[in-house]
Amino acid sequence: MKGFLGTGANFGADLNLVVQLIMGVSLAIGALLAKQKRYRAHGICQTTVLLLNLLMIGLVMWPSFQQQVKPALSKVLHKWYYEAATIHAVLGMAAELLGLYIVLVAGTDVLPQWLRFKHWKRWMRTELVLWAIVLLSGVATYCAWYVAPFR
């Protein structure tokens, strides 16, 4: 099904881009909630975004990567189309895994004490910066895949 943003993207890619941008704004709002010491609201906001992103990875990004990038990866990594997607995928996996780790440490008692971090702000700021980089690389991937080829 054709997308709704007027590019060469399909509906899923357009929807994913819009959802990712909304999630980026939501993460910034969540950071402001933490700054205001509204930690419960902060945790709910950030965890919701993390889980929604996991859903979008499973429904849109992973299948797209498997179909469009993985088969050609070893032959054409030097092309921007594949480089953008690969960089985004690697950074995105790191951000998602770090986010899941933070949620496990902050919201549960599942992990033993020796696996739990002590410096909350450092870890959460690192995650926020990493997520921003991933969001920008995702927009770059969208442009490389769906905007640049149709100019």
SSE order and pairing:
Blueprint: H1 11-35, H2 39-68, H3 73-76, H4 80-107, H5 120-147
Structural summary, described in words:
With 151 residues, the protein is mainly α. It has one domain (11-150). The protein is built from 5 helices and no strands. It has helices at 11-35, 39-68, 73-76, 80-107, 120-147. It starts with 10 loop residues before the first helix and ends with a helix. The mean pLDDT is 91.
Overall pLDDT metric: 91
Q: State the secondary-structure class.
A: mainly alpha
- Taking Cα atoms only, what radius of gyration do you get, to the nearest Å? 17 Å
Q: State the end-to-end CA separation.
A: 20 Å
The H/E string reads: HHHHH
Please state roughly what percent of the residues sit in beta strands, choosing from under 5%, 5-15%, 15-25%, 25-35%, 35-45% or over 45%.
Answer: under 5%
Helical element count?
Answer: 5
Which shape, going by the Cα principal axes? globular
Helix content: over 70%
Number of domains: 1
Low-confidence stretches: none
* Biggest pleated sheet: none
Total DSSP E strands: 0
